[in-house]
Amino acid sequence: MAGGTAFGGNAGKAGSRALPLKEIAVSDADRVSTGIAELDRVLGGGLVQGSLVLVGGDPGIGKSTLLLQVCRNLTSDEQETPVRVLYVSGEESQQQ
Questions:
Q1: Is residue 87 part of a domain?
Q2: CA gap 93, 82 in Å, rounded
Q3: pLDDT category, 12, cuts 50, 70, 90?
Q4: Which of 22, 34, 42, 50 has a 20 to 30 Å separation from 81 between CA atoms?
């Protein structure tokens, strides 16, 4: 992999530096609706292709239910362009 690592992308590449937000060009990324209006609003209009969204919270508040609904919506034949979804779930004990 030129310029990065299999796991770190360009994060450890020499010459990388943090940029002030005002120096970062704003561009409109194409977004895919989750099918849930309020979630789309929180995500700035939907999911950006290639992005990763980490959802966390207390047990029992509905994280899995919400994300399974999003997966169903994204893969539905009713979607303009149905997509493939990878759903990964994990949990830690209180001691972790």
A1: no
A2: 35
A3: low
A4: 42
